[in-house]
Amino acid sequence: MTLTSTPPESRPAPSPIANSLTAGKLPRFAPLGILLGSFVLSALLFLLVWLGNTDADFNIVGTVFVGVVLYAILIWVISRAVEGSRKSKDRLVTALVSMAFTIALLPLVSVTFTTLINGLPRFDIEFFTQSMRNVVGSGGGALHAIIGTMLVTGMATLISVPVGLLTAIYLIEYGRGRLARGITFFVDVMTGIPSIVAGLFAFAFFSLIFNDPGIRFGFGGSIALSVLMIPVVVRSSEEMLKLVPNELREASYALGVPKYLTILKVVLPTSIAGIITGIMISIARVIGETAPLLIIAGFTASMNYNLFSERMMTLPVYAYTQYMNQGADTQAYVDRAWAAALTLILIVALLNVVARIIAKIFTPAGSR
């Protein structure tokens, strides 16, 4: 029996294998280029609108929003034409998620941009070295308000952090039964109380103690802020302590370490970064409160370094009074109000930077 074989040159060439996962790819930097192009087109569009009405300010928020929407559309269309349906859907979903993040960020961008533009005209040496004593027009500063904010918020932090942290430790490490459930319930209730209620509580409390219906002093403002601050510290610290693995506690107990020392040497160092972040969040929560401080701390145009005597000005109240009680030189009052708002934002940003540095220093080396 004779076997015949087909000559190599007469065999049909193998057809190329099509791979939909690798065929047709956009260049690596194409999404970035499309994003930048979208922002340029959006900026040109709003620039034309602004040139038609120069009385209004350039709408940077609208520019960013239209830019990300245009990017989502363009990236889907271009990817579908080049990469196919599967990859284009993936890019579209990624663009939509990014767009949602941008929309959530727009209020912050708008507030920051507006505060910078309006606050920089009075962001000078005079603003940080003078008070408003004997100033009825232009000039003056907010030194007394900055000092008051630091003193009132600092005292509120000294009151709130130990109480809140010890309460969280009790709830996580020791608390059982009705007492723990009752504390948790009241912490939840305190988290949602209006800030003005805290101010009214501090005012009524000290009015009854000192029998003075017109009492105003800085320490009362610290008490009002601590009422708002304590539940935030408790909640954030409680969640951080829950994240500490029980195996660490059990290993410490197995070595014969008592419970209080386990908390001090194992639990707290492990969760210190999150606890500090929670404390900074609580400070940022109360440092801008106006209503409670307006009620119990009052306002003044002079310096006051004593928390336990006389009225004390704070930055939120300073910004409020400057804007609401404008004199003959209206623009001077408005400029001081915006400068106070910008100063408050910078203080909060600085506190967050310091908190991150402290957390990085005290975080255990193995968990960095």
UniProtKB/TrEMBL annotation:
Keywords: Cell membrane, Membrane, Phosphate transport, Transmembrane, Transmembrane helix, Transport. The chain crosses the membrane at residues 29-52, 58-79, 91-117, 142-171, 183-209, 215-234, 266-287, 337-359. The keyword Transmembrane helix applies. GO terms for molecular function: phosphate transmembrane transporter activity. It is a multi-pass membrane protein. It is found in: Cell membrane. Residues 146-355 form the ABC transmembrane type-1 domain. PANTHER family: PHOSPHATE TRANSPORT SYSTEM PERMEASE PROTEIN PSTA. NCBIfam families: 3a0107s02c (TIGR00974). Belongs to the binding-protein-dependent transport system permease family. CysTW subfamily. This is Phosphate transport system permease protein PstA.
